[in-house]
Write a structure and sequence with these properties.
Helix content is about 40%, strand content about 20%. By secondary structure, the protein is an alpha+beta fold. Strands 1, 2, 4, 7, 9, 10 and 12 form a 7-stranded antiparallel beta sheet that branches. Strands 3-8-5-6 form a 4-stranded antiparallel beta sheet, with no helix packed on it. A two-stranded antiparallel ribbon has the order 11-13. A hairpin with a 2-residue loop joins strand 5 (about 55) and strand 6 (about 60-65).
Length: about 300
């Protein structure tokens, strides 16, 4: 899946997440004598820029080389040492990532502890810049935004599955809200899976009818309608990239292009060809009357000139 079209966190509103950098960035420059044995009370993301480092965490061994990253969860004891060759350099950032200001987001996920960044060619200059601008103490707004980008890239590559049992354990309004947000994130990540809406409802630790009612109340759509809309968002990206209407319909799972066009207009408010024209005009700096600031809100409404 193209990361520009969705992802692990795509269904979670940005204002639902709170990232905190709990200390200044560690600008790693480790010599052959470097060795560490510690336990962090917060999460720690380590990214290797040169050389290599070896680690043991939870009885598992890991080695990082350039382009590799490792997430050390809060409360995990680890041992690290210089592996071989040139100096082991990179960045290590301590952080917390809370959902709704109360729940650790990473505890809601199953993920690989280490990854090789799939887009390292793009990410490496960002990490090197992050390393270069890190002050000796405190953190900056620019660091905050850059680190969120790096962290999201890590989670996209490391993600395995969402957990559902924690929502049930919370109970009450917090539990159902968390379960709905995670279900929406799952649907957003894979809207072309015909069964995804049914699966997230079945997996939720709540009565299915109650969960669907609460999902509609909080999200504004039933799970199936939300999936349809996310398919149309995927179609919007494809159309904006220059794909033909018939090709776009097939790519988002519709064999009948006429049915696809009806569904697209129902959700977006204009036909696929009309949307392509609107995107072309917006790229040329033209916007519908009243939307000169470029903030187009979907579904579009019919205008009477």
């Amino acid at each position: 899946m193209d990361k520009t079209e969705g992802g692990v966190l795509a269904g979670i509103p940005e204002n639902a997440l709170k990232l905190t950098l709990t200390r200044s960035t560690i600008k790693m420059q480790h010599s052959p004598t470097w060795r560490v044995d510690k336990l962090n009370t917060v999460h720690d993301l380590v990214v290797c820029l040169s050389g290599s480092g070896s680690y043991i965490m939870d009885d598992a061994a890991y080695t990082l080389t350039p382009g590799d990253a490792m997430l050390i969860p809060a409360g995990s004891r680890f041992v690290g040492w210089h592996a071989s060759g040139e100096a082991y350099t990179g960045v290590a950032q301590h952080f917390t990532l809370d959902l709704f200001g109360k729940h650790d987001l990473l505890s809601q996920m199953e993920y690989n502890r280490t990854v090789r960044f799939s887009r390292w060619q793009i990410l490496e200059p960002v990490v090197r810049y992050y390393h270069a601008i890190a002050p000796a103490s405190s953190t900056t707004l620019l660091q905050h935004h850059l680190f969120m980008f790096i962290l999201i890239e890590f989670l996209e590559d490391a993600f395995i599955a969402w957990k559902t049992q924690t929502a049930a354990a919370m109970g009450g309004a917090e539990g159902i809200s968390l379960a709905i947000m995670l279900a929406a994130a799952q649907i957003t990540a894979d809207p072309l899976d015909d069964d995804i809406a049914d699966r997230v409802v079945a997996a939720a630790p709540y009565n299915p009818d109650y969960f669907k009612r609460e999902f509609r109340r909080q999200i504004g759509w039933t799970p199936k309608k939300f999936q349809e809309f996310k398919r149309m968002e995927r179609a919007m990206n494809l159309l904006a990239s220059g794909k033909a209407v018939i090709e776009t319909a097939a790519l988002v799972g519709y064999s009948d292009v006429y049915y696809f066009s009806r569904m697209f207009k129902r959700h977006i408010g204009t036909s696929p060809s009309g949307y392509k024209l609107a995107m072309k005009e917006s790229q040329e700096g033209k916007f519908p009357r009243g939307e000169e600031d470029g903030q187009i809100i979907y579904p579009l409404v019919e205008r009477v000139e």
